[in-house]
C-alpha cells in the first residue's frame, strides 16, 4: 500500500545523504588519475577506444581480451605513452572461473578496481528459425552470462572496497528491433543486460554506481555488415556509423566524478537511429 503524506514527512535516519567530496571544476571531475579500470573486449573496437580514453585521463588499465592478442601490444603502448600501469589478461568471459580468477589477479596486480566496463559481446545475426540452438546458447554465454559473471565478481570487489563503478555495453538492439537483418537472440541479450544493469544500480546503491551504454551502429567488426550497411546510413539521422573516438567521452563521463549523480541510466549513442 502507498505511504500517506504523514508517513512521508517522517525523517529517515541518514537522509539526505551528503554530497560527494568531488571537485567543482568540471575538467578536474573528468580526470581519472590513479584510478584502476578493467575493460573487457579491449583489444580494439569500442573497448579499445574506452581503454585509450581511460589511459588518456590518467587511469591504470587492465585490458581483458579473448582471442585478439593485439591487446598485449596495446597495453604496452598505453603504458609507455601515458605513464600509467597496464596489463593484458586473456579471459573468456563466458567461463565463470576464468572471470573470477582474472578479477582476483587484477586486484593482486593493481590493488583495487574502481571502474569495470563489461563490454565484450558477439552476435550471430540470423532469424530464430534459421538459428541452431548452439548458436543461440553461444550468444547467451557471452552477452548475458559474460556480463553477469563480470558483474558478480567485480561487484564483490566493489562491496569489499565500499566503492565501485560498473558500465555495461548494451545496444540500441535492446530498445528497438534492428532492420533489415532479423537477429532476435542478440536483441534479447542486450535487453537483458540493460534491465540487469538498472537493477544492479538499486541493489548496489550503498557502494557502487551502475550505468548502461546503448550504442547504435559503430564502425567496428560488430558494426553494420554488408546487408545492413546502407540501411544503417539511412536510419541514423546523421547518415553514417559512429567512429569509436565518438564514444570515448560518454564512457569517460560515466567512469568519472562528472557523473556522480548518474546511476541506473541507459544512455543511447546512435546518431539518431532510434528516432526514425
Ligand atoms: N559496433 C556496433 O555497431 C555496436 C552496436 C551496439 C553494441 N555494440 C556492442 O559493443 C561491444 C563491443 O563491440 P565492438 O563493436 O567494439 O566489436 P568488436 O571489436 O568485435 O568487440 C567485441 C569484443 O568482444 C570480445 N569477446 C567476444 N567473445 C568473447 C569472449 N567469449 N570472452 C571475452 N571477450 C569476448 C572480443 O574479444 P577478442 O577480439 O579478443 O576475441 C572483442 O574484443 C559489444 O558488446 C557489442 O555487442 C556494438
From TrEMBL:
<dbReference type="Pfam" id="PF13561">
    <property type="entry name" value="adh_short_C2"/>
</dbReference>
<dbReference type="GO" id="GO:0050664">
    <property type="term" value="F:oxidoreductase activity, acting on NAD(P)H, oxygen as acceptor"/>
</dbReference>
<protein>
    <recommendedName>
        <fullName>NADP-dependent mannitol dehydrogenase</fullName>
    </recommendedName>
</protein>
<dbReference type="InterPro" id="IPR002347">
    <property type="entry name" value="SDR_fam"/>
</dbReference>
<keyword id="KW-0560">Oxidoreductase</keyword>
<dbReference type="InterPro" id="IPR020904">
    <property type="entry name" value="Sc_DH/Rdtase_CS"/>
</dbReference>
<comment type="similarity">
    <text>Belongs to the short-chain dehydrogenases/reductases (SDR) family.</text>
</comment>
<keyword id="KW-0521">NADP</keyword>
<dbReference type="GO" id="GO:0019594">
    <property type="term" value="P:mannitol metabolic process"/>
</dbReference>
<dbReference type="GO" id="GO:0050085">
    <property type="term" value="F:mannitol 2-dehydrogenase (NADP+) activity"/>
</dbReference>
<dbReference type="InterPro" id="IPR036291">
    <property type="entry name" value="NAD(P)-bd_dom_sf"/>
</dbReference>
